[in-house]
Design brief:
Layout lengths: L6 H17 L4 E7 L18 H9 L1 E3 L2 E2 L5 H10 L30 H7 L3 E7 L17 E5 L21 E3 L2 E3 L5 H15 L5 E6 L11 H6 L6 H26 L6 E7 L24 H4 L3 E4 L8 E3 L3 E2 L2 H10 L15 H5 L9 E6 L2 E6 L2 E7 L2 E6 L15 H15 L25
Parallel strand pairs: 1-8, 1-9, 2-11, 3-12, 4-5, 4-8
Antiparallel strand pairs: 2-10, 5-6, 6-7, 9-10, 13-14, 14-15, 15-16
Helix pairs in contact: 2-7, 5-7
């Protein structure tokens, strides 16, 4: 169901937008990804103790996708999926790569072609700012995967303030601009927002694609003292530090979005925002309420995330889309607005969301969505979802009535259970085993039956 989609306004611009995508009037594309961000922890999802005015404005000016998903419950595989438009299991990127610049297996396989490569051929200037986490060996670096301008760190995480650079330690590697180390004196999240704003203003006269990939609010919690003081009313110390990190993230995103407005590019910029996975609720103080569990899990709390799409020139503001969408869809949607053909050399799982968000397509973008992380897997088909936490442990939930996955219906609905088990088995035939060992301790999460407290 598409509720409050303002069909008339959306349909009025639909034909215009499709013409624009083939007439040279290419929109800019900004993809903003937060890291380990709780489902509830933005104002437009109901958060009360962490103000996020900039993200709330983004949602108010765009389309709030209430059933937005990522394709994996861990950081690196999720990011590999969105940049390739393919389930990462198809090319073995099922684990977080171990940080080792001398290891030529641990990274997004070089056989895969990334979104910026296609957009560069379509005339876009391509940029990456933030966290990479797709391989530390030089061939995996963003400047070798289609990004013309780069700023950030190569590993899976980083300290935010007062670090001593050590290129051998993942969280203290140099921050690099176009492959050369640079000094960063401000909070790293702030630096990423400022760098994104500079990119936006620098390329105001030609189409661009920017992948703004934050590491906030991933640990370590290192907010500025001033920002931490703002949340003194939160008694839980971990939650308080997390709140301060989210607030800094929101401000940094606000800086990038304000650059669009100041430079006159806001109307013709397609913006995506989502987290790379659910919040690790027992680690960083995040909340995934009302969802079950968190990062690393195939339950909703691991894979369902805050998700917004905005394009003021084409999409009606303040609308809501209630059918399942995926971060995988960034790929096909971006190529569509750029006027570029979808490649056909391999299986792609990405869907162009525009006809669905315009109201031209009433069918869901995805009949089925899949997740697999080690022995844990899940599949959603319509409102039904199968979650398996082991070879012979299968649970079934009806999400429309039970978003918190509290009532296992597997014994009462064996037909639905067997249907989803069958389609998952069929999907797995198009996947391969993990292509690299991955970082120790990051291959999976222990089972967690409780809801987020």
């Amino acid at each position: 169901m598409k509720s409050t989609l303002s069909h008339l306004a959306a349909l009025a611009c639909a034909s215009v937008s499709l013409h624009a995508a083939t007439s040279g009037d290419q929109p800019n594309i900004l993809v903003i990804v937060s890291d380990d961000h709780g489902y509830e922890d933005v104002g437009f999802q109901g958060c009360k103790d962490i103000p996020t005015p900039h993200l709330d404005r983004l949602a108010a000016e765009g389309v709030h996708c209430t059933n937005g998903y990522v394709s994996h419950p861990f950081c690196s595989p999720s990011r590999a999926g969105l940049l390739t438009g393919r389930y990462q299991h198809r090319f073995g990127h099922e684990r977080n790569p171990f940080y080792n610049p001398q290891d030529h297996r641990e990274g997004l396989p070089m056989t895969e072609h990334l979104l910026p490569e296609f957009l560069a051929k379509a005339g876009y200037t391509t940029g990456w700012v933030g966290k990479w986490h797709l391989g530390a060996a030089p061939e995996f670096w963003p400047q070798n995967r289609g990004f013309a301008e780069t700023f950030g760190f190569i590993g899976g995480g980083h300290k935010y303030i007062n670090w001593t650079v050590n290129p051998k330690v993942e969280y203290t590697v140099p921050i690099e601009r176009n492959g050369k180390p640079v000094e960063v004196t401000e909070h790293l999240t702030t630096a990423f927002g400022n760098e994104a704003a500079a990119f936006v203003k620098r390329h105001a006269d030609s189409p661009w694609f920017l992948y703004l990939a934050f590491n906030a609010p991933h640990t370590p919690h290192e907010p500025t003292p001033e920002r931490l003081e703002r949340f003194a009313s939160i008694t839980d110390k971990t939650r308080r530090a997390y709140a301060a990190q989210v607030s800094l993230l929101d401000d940094a995103i606000g800086v990038a979005l304000e650059a669009l407005r100041e430079s006159g590019q806001d109307a013709n910029t397609l913006v995506f925002f989502f987290s790379d996975n659910g919040g690790p609720i027992h680690v960083n103080g995040s909340s995934n309420d009302p969802l079950r569990d968190g990062k690393g899990s195939a339950y909703e709390g691991g894979v369902r995330v805050p998700f917004v799409v905005k394009w003021p020139a084409k999409l009606a503001a303040g609308t809501q889309y209630d059918l399942p969408v995926s971060a995988l869809d960034v790929f096909a949607t971006s190529l569509a607005v750029a006027g570029a053909e979808m490649p056909s050399d391999r299986t792609y799982d990405s869907v162009n969301l525009l006809p669905h968000l315009f109201g031209e397509q009433s069918a869901p973008p995805h009949d089925l969505l899949f997740w697999r992380s080690g022995p844990t897997h899940g599949v959603r088909g319509g409102d039904w979802k199968l979650v398996s936490t082991g070879p012979d442990v299968h649970e079934l939930y009806q999400l429309r009535a039970d978003i918190g996955e509290e009532n296992d219906l597997s014994t009462a609905n064996t037909d639905q259970l067997n249907r989803l088990k069958t389609v998952f088995t069929e999907w797995e035939q198009g996947t391969i085993p993990p292509a690299f060992p991955g970082a120790p301790g990051r291959k999976g999460k222990k089972k967690a039956k409780e809801k987020n407290p």
